[in-house]
Amino acid sequence: MTRLLTRLLSGLGILLVSALPLVASAQGPGIVIQRDGVAITTADLESELRRMSPEVRSAMLRNPDDMGRMSSNLLLRRVLAKQAEEAGLDKDMLNQATLRIVVDRVLSEMQLVRLDEKVKVNDQALTDRALSLYKANAKRFERPAEVRIRHILLANGSGTREQAEQLLADLKKGADFEKMAREKSNDPGSAAKGGDLGFFTAGRMVKSFEDAAFALKTPGELSGVVESQFGFHILQLVESRPAGMQSFEEVKAELKNEVLGKLTQDARLAEGRRILEKAQTKPEVLKAFIDAQLAAQPAQ
After folding, report:
1. Per-residue pLDDT tens over the stretch 152-175
2. Where is the PpiC domain (predicted)?
3. Which of 39, 229, 239, 264 could form a disulfide with 34, with the two C-beta atoms 3.0–4.6 Å apart?
């Protein structure tokens, strides 16, 4: 039951839960586009924008052409809906059931947002709960040793060990590593960044490369020529981080979101159980419906 409720309730609220408040006009909704008595107002646009993620919403608002297309699409849909009503399509039993389901979905999403608001706690209480979670799960926040490496790759077929050795000799004489990486490296992912691979932990790279990387101890230190299945590498240590614990400050925002998500999910599950625990099921009606639907299907 809990798993079913989780799937059901997490599937709701998609349109509204992530929505941020928009600025409503002090003069009320204005008409944006209309035809033959059918109009789309600024309230309609606000409703449609609330369905979008903050990033998409911001992009839409910064592009008047996109907003114009959205207004036109909403008008088109509303005119077609009016035509459907005039044709009596809303009187059909199955169509009425479809409309009821759509209304149920929207209203249930609104109610879930209302439930979510009720379980919100103030920022200090949220921080306190996040700190308790941090202290109770110390192992989760262990950070393995990391190194940040620049490298130059002479790929198989593009360079030889002798060329790599000469390149290493030039670097030891003072040649600029980043400049050489941009000019000489055959690694398209890092060459443009001066060979920078960023931080990585053990187990992320091929063994010969990894062994050489973690053997470097001093920033700026160079490896010897390292061979892998990709070719010949020269590594330079940029920075290393010893193994340790992530501080609470580093993970506080993540844990506060986790705590709030747990509070919200628990409240939704509790409401779902409350609703369903007294529901009266009619298995015989469901079985008769399934049997009739299966009988109506064409033979395989």
Report:
1. 999 988 778 999 999 999 999 999
2. 144-239
3. 39
